[in-house]
Recover the amino acids of this structure.
């Protein structure tokens, strides 16, 4: 029986970054509307991103993080990025972050991507859990993680500064 690729779903596949991803990465990283839900608030130059792609080991065991491009299986278009960060192999856990390009949101891609990364994390990284930090006002991410059976396990009160006020961050966990 032939095994299917765990990183390929019906509509998207997950793959390592390539030099050709520079423009997609540049567009996503410099979308200031996403900065409120990330830990960065500065633009990145093409040079910096090119260096990141070229010089990073992209080995989760070395870097303690892994960035995969989300690609449409229809036409190969990059439609987003998924990250595993704060990888802790001893504790069998990692934080998950996902961004879907604006034109591809609300199409079920996020749910499919979560399913693919969960299979990969469980089978190949032997992770016991994935977790996400979601700002309390990020309704789309809250719905995505709830729909994917992540449990809201903690609220970090006034955790981040956004729109001239401190807001809560919700912690979602899923045991694999």
């Amino acid at each position: 029986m032939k095994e299917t690729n765990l990183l390929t779903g019906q509509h998207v596949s997950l793959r390592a970054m390539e030099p050709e991803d520079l423009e997609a990465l540049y567009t996503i990283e410099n979308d200031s509307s996403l900065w409120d839900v990330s830990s960065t608030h500065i633009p990145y130059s093409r040079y910096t991103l090119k260096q990141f792609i070229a010089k990073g080991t992209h080995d989760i065991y070395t870097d303690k993080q892994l960035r995969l491009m989300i690609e449409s299986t229809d036409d190969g278009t990059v439609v987003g990025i998924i990250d595993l960060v704060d990888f802790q192999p001893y504790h069998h856990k990692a934080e998950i972050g996902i961004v879907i390009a604006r034109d591809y949101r609300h199409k079920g891609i996020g749910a499919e991507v979560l399913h693919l990364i969960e299979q990969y994390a469980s089978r190949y990284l032997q992770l016991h859990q994935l977790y996400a930090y979601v700002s309390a006002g990020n309704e789309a991410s809250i719905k995505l993680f709830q729909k994917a059976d992540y449990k809201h396990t903690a609220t970090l009160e006034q955790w981040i500064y956004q729109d001239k006020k401190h807001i809560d961050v919700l912690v979602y966990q899923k045991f694999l």
About this structure: Residues 139 and 145 are 10 Å apart (CA to CA).
